[in-house]
Design a protein that fits this description.
Elements lengths: L2 H8 L3 H11 L3 E3 L10 H22 L7 E3 L5 E3 L2 H5 L21 E3 L18
Antiparallel strand pairs: 1-4, 2-3
Helix pairs in contact: 1-2
């Protein structure tokens, strides 16, 4: 949350909020490019543990072991045997974004002095055309 929004919500001057957040609490802003965006092994394991019961539920809703029976129906519409399978939302392992000078300050995040040190992930160079 931005200092300005906190000040408006609490109805106190921005300078006071800035003093509390930075001096008293010790938080400071860091660029989002230093915030990890790749999932750790624990995060991936957690996704597997969450996905297995969902897969089992899809299989039970289908009445069989084949949860991969999806296809394209008449008119090019996506079809599946059950609504649960269609409504499942999955995520990617990484986030991809391009920091431009206009957007670099937007994704900044607050960090406390005792926050764990973030490590940079190996990423391929961004290509701009």
């Amino acid at each position: 949350m931005k200092i300005r929004k906190i000040a408006l919500k609490l109805e106190i001057p921005k300078s006071m909020v800035h003093e509390i957040v930075n001096d008293t609490l010790g938080y400071h802003k860091v660029s989002a490019r230093w915030v990890p965006k790749m999932l750790t092994g624990d995060h991936k394991l957690q996704r597997v543990e969450i996905s297995q019961p969902l897969l089992l539920r899809c299989q039970q809703d289908n009445g069989d072991e084949d949860t991969t029976h999806v296809g394209v129906g008449p008119g090019g519409d996506f079809q599946a045997k059950n609504n649960l399978f269609v409504n499942l939302i999955t995520g990617d392992e990484t986030w991809v974004h391009l920091n431009t000078p206009e957007t670099k300050r937007d994704p900044m995040t607050w960090k406390h002095p005792f926050s764990p040190v973030t490590k940079k992930f190996n990423q391929s160079a961004e290509v701009r055309r």
